[in-house]
Amino acid sequence: MSKPVTDPMLRFVDTDQAYPEKRDPKLRTEDFQEIADRYPEEAAKEQSGRCSQCGVPYCSVHCPLHNHIPDWLRLTAEGRLREAYELSNSTSTMPEICGRICPQDRLCEGNCVIEFSGHDAVTIGSVEKYITDTAWAEGWVEPISVGPEKGQSIGIIGAGPAGLATAEYMRMGGYEVHVYDRHDRAGGLLTYGIPGFKLEKPVVMRRVERLKEADIHIHENFSVGEDATLEELRQKHDAILIATGVYKARDLRLPGSVLSGVHAALDYLTASNRMSFGDDVPAFEDGTLDARDKHVVVIGGGDTAMDCVRTAIRQGAKSVKCLYRRDKENMPGSQNEVRNAEEEGVEFVWLSAPEELIGDGGAVSGVKVQKMRLGPPDFSGRRSPEPIPDSAYEVEADMVIKALGFEPEELPQLFGAPELGVTRWGTLRVDHKNMMSNLDGVFAAGDIVRGASLVVWAIRDGRDVAEHMHAYLKAKARAARAKTTEPQKDAA
C-alpha cells in the first residue's frame, strides 16, 4: 500500500500558475493604488508548493541578489512564514519592493526550471511580496541591529536603493552613517520615479523610517556642490559613497523638441508622485504636467515609458499612444507592464520612430512619425530598425513625453571635484576589485557606475560596496592605531 504524499512541494504537475487577481482595468485606472493585492495565505502556500526544488536553482542564479528562492518557497508552502521572511531578508534589504518592481519575467521567473518544462513559472515575485508584507503586518520586521560603535563615520551621497542598502549594512556594522540627498524625501526613484500603482509610497517610506530609527542621519534637501563640496564631505567622514544614480534625460534632438508641451519623463513622473504625497505642485496644478483631456504621446519602450503611459491614463488623458521604433518582441521593457498598459487602454504604435515634433503657436500639436522595419541585428543582438521609404504620417499630440532613458550628470563639475575620474560615458570610474574611485576613500555604486539599470542591481551594488568600505575602514583604523603607538615604541 503506497504512503500518502505529505511533501507540499512539486505541485506544479497538478496546480496551475495563478498570480494575485488584478483589479478590473477600468476601476484601477481611477486611482494610483497597486493593481493587485497580496495573496491570501492558502494561495501563497499553494503557489509556493509549485516549486520543483531543482538541484541547480536557476531562479537564484539569475537573481542579482542570489536570493535563496527555493528555500523560502518551501518554508512558505510549509506554513513557516516567519522563517521564510528571515531567510528572504538575509540577502535583501528591500524584498517586498523587489517583489513589486523587479522584472521577474526577465530574471527569476524567466529562468524557472518548470517554466522550461512547459508548466509556467512559479510566481516568485508575488510570493516575495506576500512574505514581507505579512512580516510588516505581523510585527516581525525588527529594528536594525546595530553593532558596537566603530568610532568612524561614512557619508553617502544619494538616498536611492544603492545608498539606502549601503546605509543599512554599514549601520549594522557599527558605523555612524550620514546620507545626503537633494530631494525632500529619501528613496530616489523609488519615491519619485516609480508610480504608486506599481509601488505605493508608504511601502518605501516605512523602509526609510526604519533607517532613521536606527540613527542613520538622512540629510534631505542637501545638494553636494552647493551645501558642501565633495572635498568638504571627505574631510568630515572617514569614507564616502557616491550613489547618485543617473537622472539626466536623454534628449530627442529632433526639430520641434523645444516646443511647449514636450516633457522629460522624470519631470512628469515626479510631479505625479508629488501629488500623491499631497504636495503643492504648481506645474501640475496649472495643467503643464497634467495629462487630463490631452492627446498624449510617449516616446520610448522601456519601463519608464510604461510608467508614463499608465500614469497618463490615470490622469484622464483623451488618448495615450506609445511610439517605439522596434516591435513588441524587441522592446526593453517588461512584457508584463506592456500587458497591463494594453488592458488599461494604452495604444502601442510599434515600428514607429518620431521624425519631427509639429507645433502650433509655439506648443506641440503633433508628431511626424516614420514607419520602420527590422533589419540585421546590431551590436546588442537586437535587429536594427530602419526606415521604410515614403511612409511618414502624423499623430495628434497635446503632450509629448520623452522616455528615452537616462545618462549621468557631470558629477566632477557638479560636486566641485574636477579630479573625480569618469568614463567616456560619464559614469564614475572605479576599481572593480574594491569599488573605489580614483580618490582615496571615495567609493561608488549603483547606476552611477553601471549606467541606468534595475533597482535590484542597485541593491546588490549597495550590499557589495558595504563589504569593501568595511575592509577599507578596518584597515584605516588599524593604521591609525599603529601610528599612535609608534612614539611609545620609540620612547621604549
From TrEMBL:
Keyword field contains Iron: yes
Every FAD/NAD(P)-binding domain range: 154-462
Cofactor dependence: [4Fe-4S] cluster
Keyword vocabulary terms for this entry: 4Fe-4S, Iron, Iron-sulfur, Metal-binding, NADP, Oxidoreductase
Domain Dihydroprymidine dehydrogenase: 29-139
NCBIfam families: gltD_gamma_fam
Protein name, per record: NAD(P)-dependent oxidoreductase
Species of origin: Alterisphingorhabdus coralli
Source organism phylogeny: Bacteria, Pseudomonadati, Pseudomonadota, Alphaproteobacteria, Sphingomonadales
